[in-house]
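for the writeup, i need someone to sanity check this before i put it in the appendix. the sequnce is what the collaborator sent (i think, or maybe the updated version? ugh). structure was predicted straight from it, no edits. if anything looks off just tell me and ill rerun, i have time this weekend
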Amino acid sequence: MTPSLSGILEAAIRIRPFAHKTPVLTSRTLDERVNAQVFLKCENFQKVGAFKFRGACNAVLSLDAKEKTRGVVTHSSGNHAQALALAGQSQGIAATIVMPSNAPHVKVDAVRGYGAEIVFCEPNLTARETTAAEIVEQTGATLIHAYDDIRIIHGQGTAAMELIDQVGQLDMVIVPVGGGGLLSGTALATAGLCPEAKIVGAEPSGADDAFRSLQEGRIIPSVDPQTIADGLLTSLGETNFPIIQELVSQIVTVDEETIVESLRFVLMRMKIVIEPSAAVAVAALMSGKMKIAGKRVGVILSGGNLDLGKLATLGKEKAESRTSNETQRPTSRDG
């Protein structure tokens, strides 16, 4: 199977009965601030609160009869873990999730709540991959990687496909990038349906491996990333990188203060909850690093699984920094 627009269109039909068609919101204040017409695709309203359900659902529904009886497995402590657990539950397919021993209790509880079996391992990538491989060998379960999987890429691409269907042609689409599943899927969908649009990845400057990978022409591993956008810590996938190389115009990096400012802007002005990883795309939009004046710009808000306990801390960090430095149709959220 080769990643393609046709694969995305097929995925859209496949997941339609199970995934939400998420709304697109607009903000007059945001438009005025960036001097552009901005359309925010709200995957924070997707099942499990993130775009990840699209890919997981497509992957599970793509299994043949024998694969379904053997179940699925993945290693993840984030949104993909919950997405695969729910996708498996919705089809009566057993899901086993390998999670690090230090995974947040709220995420562990969510995965269990969706009926998946959890196998804990040491909190490092080698242990996660090894444990998952052992389960595959023992059970014959199908490994569903969080982003380095064509079925996942096709599923994630349905978000951009929907966005273009909802608002029409765009001049630019901005997407946060971690492993590259959402960005590569978005790139395929946008290039096929809106060929004149520029496709831009948004990345924290403290976790800028995608930016450096494009500069070097090879995958630069993510080593000791430092950012509050914990969904964007992984290295680019081998399947994702060639698509990004071919179709993505640029990767825009943004600092932590801009990420926090963008997160607070969406929370306070638009009254919707997004997670820091989603705020990275808004931060790129607001960074002034791109020529967007007068343009129609789509932004995919990747998820809304914000740790509410960190809100006060984020506000405090921003204040300290200042002191030291002295729905289905676009809907407006602030008039």
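Residues 318-327 have pLDDT under 50 and may be disordered. The longest helix spans residues 150-167.
thx in advance!!
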